[in-house]
Amino acid sequence: MEVSIDAIGNVVGLWCGGKTDRSLPPVMTGSHIDTVKSGGRFDGNLGVLAGLEVIKVIKEQNISTKHPIAVSFFTGEEGSRFAPDMLGSLVYVGGLDLETALSTISVDGKRLGSELEAIGYNGTAPCPGTTPKIFLELHIEQGPILESEGIDIGAVENVQGISWTELTIKGQSNHAGTTPMRMRRDAGYVAAKISTFVRDLSNEMGGTQAGTVGKIDLVPNLVNVVSSKATMTVDLRNTSELMLQEAENRLAIFCEGIASQEDVEITRKSLARFEPVEFNHQLVDQVFVTAQNLGYSTKRMTSGAGHDAQMLSRVCPAAMIFVPSKDGLSHNPAEFTSIEEVAAGANVLLHLIVDAAEEYR
């Protein structure tokens, strides 16, 4: 394959057979290879390796296509070190300018551009990248639905909207034994109240509303000192943009109230904000029908997680293929999908890619 690396570190391998017309847009598949600290080995990697397997099968079977076929992996899909999530694919489609992305500072204080240079992934291919004919992403579900219902393949219709906010709470450190409870300006207590509010809010709103406080840092973080500062993250998600906005507004109102009540200062910083995404209906239908024609049980479904495919959907028809996750576990070392389930997803991907690339018969 002809491999290129762009200035944000996205990698694209291009396959051209003997009859391929290089002037035509490529049929693209792929995903990401970065993970989170507590991650497993299937999230993202499956979609990249399956894309390479598709190319291997096409070569072994001497299949010739009109369109080139591209396999890609994108920088920083998780967003847990460099926010926002899907950063590389967002730059690839022109949704985030290159210099802003390269200037992003990580949670450990490093500049993204400098880190890419250090590992040799500050490439020369242009950003934005080539617009594909279509983009297909094979991915583990990262949830329990397919396994619990005994379904082989998920045809993903849409992706939830995502809102990531960092809250900084400033109070006053003081002695844990001598400071009366009524006189405390306890940043740790306020962080705890916000955390329980996020859970209660999500349960009250119901539907697809989800809320998570995944990170809380306290200062001075000592057993016998009232916290003077707390830094925390809030992750809100919903398939409805209006409902997501409602959750954001209610969180903001709660923060204002608790700040006044506890005599602390709360500042907000948006880490990521993406509206819900609807995938191309025709392509989703093709995923569904192809899977059924191959004898797999199939379900139309929503993705609760963000994916590179939602960024590619800004510039071309895009869709996703889900395979089951054992016990619904992901972002966990126990993450697992059987080889039979992996093969089923890759088989659906193969047929869709060859069909879209227009095989010479």
Outline the structure in words.
The protein is an alpha/beta fold. The chain has two domains: 239 residues, 3-Layer(aba) Sandwich (Aminopeptidase), CATH 3.40.630; 114 residues, Alpha-Beta Plaits (2-Layer Sandwich). The chain is 32% helix and 25% strand. The protein contains ten helices and 15 strands. The strands form three sheets. Strands 1, 2, 3, 4, 5, 6, 13, 14 and 15 form a nine-stranded mixed beta sheet that branches. Helix 1 packs across helix 10 and helix 8 packs across helix 10. The protein is elongated. The chain starts with a strand and ends in a 5-residue tail after the last helix.
Share of helical residues: 25-40%
CATH architecture term of the largest domain: 3-Layer(aba) Sandwich
Mean pLDDT: 97
Report the β-strand fraction as a percent range: 25-35%
Low-confidence stretches: none
Radius of gyration: 23 Å
Specify the biggest β-sheet: 9 strands, mixed
Distance between the termini: 23 Å
Shape: elongated
Topology record:
Elements: E1 2-5, E2 11-15, E3 27-31, H1 45-60, E4 69-73, H2 87-92, H3 98-102, H4 112-118, E5 134-140, H5 145-149, E6 153-159, E7 161-170, E8 174-175, H6 187-205, E9 210-219, E10 225-226, E11 229-238, H7 241-262, E12 265-274, E13 277-278, H8 281-293, E14 298-303, H9 308-312, E15 318-323, H10 339-356
Parallel strand pairs: 3-4, 3-5, 5-15, 6-14
Antiparallel strand pairs: 1-2, 2-4, 6-13, 6-15, 7-11, 7-12, 8-10, 9-11
